[in-house]
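Morning run. Coffee first, then this:
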Amino acid sequence: MTEMNVGEEEEETCRLCWGGVDDGPLVQPCACRGSAKLIHKHCLQEWRRTSPNQDAAYRCGQCMDHYRDALSLELLSARLQTERTNGQTTNLTLSTLAMELQVQGKFDEAEPLFREVLEVQRETDGNRHLNTLISIGNLGTLLNNKGDLASAEPLLREALEGKRETLGNRHQQTLASINNLGVLLKAKEDNAAAELLYREALEVKRDTLGNQHPDTLVSVSNLGSLLYAKGDLTAAEPLCREALEGKRATLGNRHPGTLISINGLGELLQDKSDFAAAELLYCEALELRRETLGNRHPHTLTSISNLGMLLKDMGDLAAAELLCREALEVRRETLGDRHPHTLVSISNLGRLLKAKGNLQAAETLYRELLDARRETLGSGHPSTLRSLKYLSRLLKAKRRATEILIARNRFVCVRSAATMSNNSS
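And here it is:
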């Protein structure tokens, strides 16, 4: 056996051509570890364009991690066009391209593809075929991501009901649908119903897949996030730490799933007022998301928003405002004015402006937020009621500020009058 001297490091090489950094920059495009971790960017692109393996266009053939980049969309779109031109079956490529578009945050482009796939599956295979149920769930998940919860829920319930009936409660496809419906219910703030589903999925995944499987770690993360949303930080923190530790070990630090857990633990630590630890995690997540997903991806915007609100809590209002405005501007452009994430950014910027004393600008945002939530969620929804509370407190603060200003002006007038009287006498 060859021994390595203490402190000696292996030279970084490309897993395809075995060349080093002298032959071009090495990148880590997927979740592969060890000697397979790095590859030249030009080698990877050439392989993806010329490989006989169809999935090489969009994912690694070893770890099966998706590349999630513009080249994936380019190659899949070209393949779809060729299949349409030649009259070939398109469902697999349609579905794959739709999923890639969704993962990259291009929801509007993905939706017609998902709908086309589902229409074909219902017609050819029927409503209870597994492929149809998967397509139903995919469309439901996309609509949930777009913030159209009312349209998403019946689809996600149909998918879950069909999978329980045809596959049983412990099948991995059933567990995926349990998780997807739980995500929607959490978005609706029906935390009790969401928790039941999350716990069911996690228990079965621990039993059937083990604690370190990526799917198990997703469920660990989801349950931790839900408990955090319910305010049970004591129960949430060990789950959030378990998920992050497991994902770092199995997926690496740059994987989107790992970045979700980094961000989630940062949120929890911020709520515990451990600002220094939270800032380290937020900065790590934001830097890697800007690099791997781009500045306009929904996950990147979440990191921008979270870091902005942390800086607000730390008292750096100027830096916080820049981030909050960036998140809101891009969310308005990419998601629209009524998307739940856009509304969160409106709320965040309003709170920041209030903290800076710009009450008029804050009021404009709070009124927009309240109107939007009444329209999309109804007057009795918890989020709508919170928005009403924010506006009421702001108006009280404005009245107090006005009263203080009036009192101050009166004091100045009285003091001036007294000074003039003393001078004249």
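DSSP finds 17 helices and two strands in the chain. Good start to the day.
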